[in-house]
Design a protein that fits this description.
About 50% of the residues lie in helices and about 0% in strands. It is an all-alpha fold.
Length: about 100
């Protein structure tokens, strides 16, 4: 549990985040934003969508040429930053939460 008096010093902040020297980290989102800036998230979204489009174009095009009908489920739906943040949050939560069946 973090105290409201804890903060990240400018010297130790190598992430180029939006936080200023002396800002207080009071929420999990504040801590997350120290490591993942908006610019980083937008870059991850851009390259995720670029890779997926190239992947699907490469895999699906030969099928289309052989007169197979493609369904809409085979098309990539671009992700946005909100979806990426949600996915990362789920990964973090699943890493933190321990199940009795592990």
């Amino acid at each position: 549990d973090t105290s409201n008096s804890e903060h990240v010093s400018e010297e130790s902040d190598l992430s180029n985040s939006d936080f200023e020297h002396g800002d207080v980290v009071t929420t999990i989102l504040d801590a997350f934003k120290i490591f993942f800036t908006n610019e980083m998230l937008e870059l991850i979204v851009f390259h995720t969508n670029l890779y997926a489009k190239r992947y699907y174009d490469k895999k699906i095009t030969p099928r289309q040429d052989s007169n197979n009908i493609r369904s809409d489920s085979h098309f990539w739906k671009s992700v946005d930053r909100i979806e990426l943040e949600s996915f990362i949050g789920l990964l973090i939560q699943s890493g933190v939460h321990r199940s009795n069946y592990e």
